[in-house]
Structures are given as C-alpha cells and as structure tokens.
Write a structure and sequence with these properties.
single chain, mainly beta, Jelly Rolls, six-stranded antiparallel beta sheet, five-stranded mixed beta sheet, 16 strands, globular
Length: 208
C-alpha cells in the first residue's frame, strides 16, 4: 500500500518526532556523500565513514548535538521504498540528507505488547542539505528514496551504536549495540535473521 501523505519537516507535527537543525554548514559532508557510489540495488550502512569523520561538521555534531560525547558519523545509502522495520536507540540520531529522501516515523510509545500498527506511521520529506535530530522516542529505519537515483543520508550517533553485540542479549529486540529492532510481519528477510516481527498493518511504500 502506498503511503500517500508526506509531511514537511517544517510542519508542526514533526515536533513530535524530532527537530530541524539550522546554523551548521553541511556543504562539505553533502558533497562527500554524493561522491560515494550507490549500490545498484538494496541499501548499505556504515556506522562510521572516514570521509565524513575528518570534516569540521562532525566535530560540530559531537559538541553541539551530543554534548561532547564520543560520536560516530556514518552513512546510509542506496535504494529503499518500503517501511520494512522500525528501530530505536537510547539516544537521538542526527540525519543530514545528501539527497532528497523520506523518513517513515512512529512513536515508540505506540509499541505495546510486542505490536505496533503501521497506521501510526507518518512520513516526512527531507530535502538535500536538511539536517534533523530524530528523538530517542521515535521509531525510524532506512530512509526511502524519492527518485531512481536512490537516497543518501548521513547518520550520526553515539560511538559504537549499530555495531555487533559483544555477547547475546537477554532482550530479543536488541539487535546491535544501542539498536532495538522490530520487523514488519511481511519482512521475511529480517525475520529469518532473527528480528522479531512486531509491525502489523500495511508495509507502506513510498512511490514517486
């Protein structure tokens, strides 16, 4: 099913999920992201991208967005059109759109008794160069593309997030360090990898 209503991050409703960040110069990091070749199909994610970490904006993010905590600045890029899953962290996530893209978001508080209905989702368009903070209380996952060229999204998080666990977790939803993950019940690929199905309702698609 197509998710047709797409909000702007300037709409008031976005304040329930995150905030738009202004005042930072993202020119260099957007250019660095555009220089990275996208996969022909599927998406890729790097928790830390060397070409990003050496830029001044990465230090700005560490100081201004994470209060001087150790951080990592990585990249999610490629091709994706569907909701597919939702994840959350115990911290905010900073995103910078290298291309136009859509984030499909929901509230962690709506995840109850191991289930969340996809009808709670709201989609937000980020234009290339937009920078946002996605709150820890917000469910999110891989961005969706809005053109056949694919999407590119800088992802900044506390250092170590989304890296493999050192030992098996007691919580079945803890998939990586500081990454709790639930799959849409139709996403057989993630479920086969041990991700718990928790999203019911349509697996929404973004079309363009």
């Amino acid at each position: 099913m197509v998710l047709e209503k797409i909000y702007s991050i300037d709409d008031e409703v976005f304040a329930e999920y995150g905030r738009k960040i202004t005042g930072a110069d993202v020119t260099e990091i957007v250019a660095a992201g555009k220089a990275i070749t996208f996969p022909k199909e599927g998406s890729a994610y790097e928790p830390s991208t060397a070409a990003f970490e050496e830029l001044a904006i990465s230090e700005w993010i560490r100081k201004e967005c994470f209060g001087e905590l150790p951080t990592q600045v990585g990249y999610c890029y490629g091709h994706s059109n569907f909701l597919n899953a939702w994840e959350w962290h115990t911290s905010s996530e900073i995103n910078i759109a290298v291309t136009d893209l859509v984030l499909i978001l929901a509230k962690r508080s709506d995840y109850q008794d191991g289930k969340i209905d996809s009808s709670t989702a709201k989609a937000f368009l980020l234009k290339a160069g937009d920078m946002v903070e996605v709150y820890a209380t917000t469910l999110h996952f891989c961005p969706c593309e809005v053109s056949k060229e694919g999407f590119g999204c800088v992802v900044a998080l506390p250092k170590g997030t989304n890296t493999p666990l050192d030992e098996k977790a007691g919580d079945p939803l803890l998939f990586r360090k500081n990454k709790w993950l639930i799959a849409h019940e139709e996403n057989e690929g993630l479920i086969a990898r041990g991700v718990a199905p928790g999203i019911i309702g349509p697996n929404y698609e973004i079309k363009y």
